[in-house]
Amino acid sequence: MAGSTEMASLEESFRKFAIYGDTKATGQEMNGKNWAKLCKDCKVTDGKSVTSTDVDIVFSKVKGKTARVINYEEFKKALEELAPKRFKDKSKEEAYEAICQLVAGKEPINVGVTKAKTVGAVERLTDTSKYTGSHKERFDESGKGKGKSGRENIVDNSGYVSAYKNAGTYDAKVKK
C-alpha cells in the first residue's frame, strides 16, 4: 500500500475537503457534496470511466444505511471502490496507489468566486477631471478637494468691484 507520509497527506486532504463550505464541520466526517467536490477537484472523475453518478453510488455504498456522512475509514473504502474503475489497466493495489496519489496533498479549489471590481460607473463617477459646471470648482488641478472654499462663495469685502485692476491703490494716492 501507500507510504505513511502519503497516508498523512491523504488524511489531510480528507480533512480539508470535509470542512469545506461548512462552518460547523469538525473535519472528522465528510458529506456527499464534499465527496463529489473532492473527486472532481482531484481529477478522480474523468467523465468517461468514472462519472459523477459513479461517485454518488460509491458514496451510498460505503456510508451507513441511515448515515449522511462518511468517516476517514469509509473514505479509504470509497477510494478502493473507485480505483479499479478509474485505472482499469492496473492491478487493484496499483490502482489504489494511483488514486491515493491523485487525492493526496490536494485542497478545495475555489472556482467562480466573485471578486470586487472598481471599474465602469465607480471609476467614471470618481474621476474629478470629468466634472463640469459648479462641481468642477470644488477641486484643484490635481483632483484634490478644496474643502469649504470649493463649496461656498467667499465674499470679497474690500470695497472694490471684482476683477478691478487697481484694487488697493486708493490709499496710496490719497496720502500724497
Question: Quick recap of the structure?
Answer:
With 176 residues, the chain is an all-alpha fold. The protein has 8 helices and 2 strands; from the N terminus they run H-E-H-H-E-H-H-H-H-H.
Task: Describe the 3D structure.
The protein is mainly alpha-helical. The chain folds into 2 domains: 1-103, Recoverin, domain 1 (Orthogonal Bundle); 114-152, no CATH class. The chain is built from 8 helices and 2 strands, in the order H-E-H-H-E-H-H-H-H-H. It has helices at 4-19, 32-41, 52-62, 72-86, 92-103, 121-125, 148-151, 170-174; strands spanning 30-31, 69-70. Strands 1-2 form a two-stranded antiparallel sheet. Helix 1 crosses helix 2 and helix 4 (72-86) packs across helix 5 (92-103). The longest helix has 16 residues, at 4-19. The model has no long low-confidence stretch (mean pLDDT 81).
Oligomer: single chain
Total strand count, please?
2
Residue windows where pLDDT falls under 50 for at least 5 positions: none
CATH class of the largest domain: Mainly Alpha
**SS field, number of helical segments:** 8
Mean pLDDT: 81
- Give the CA-CA distance, first to last residue: 112 Å
Task: Indicate the overall shape.
Answer: rod-shaped
The largest β sheet comes out as:
2 strands, antiparallel
Label the CATH architecture of the largest domain: Orthogonal Bundle
Supply the CATH superfamily name of the largest domain.
EF-hand
| Beta-strand residue fraction | under 5%
Structural domain tally: 2
Family: Belongs to the TPPP family.
Main location: cytoplasm
Keywords: Cytoplasm, Cytoskeleton, Microtubule
Protein name: Tubulin polymerization-promoting protein family member 3
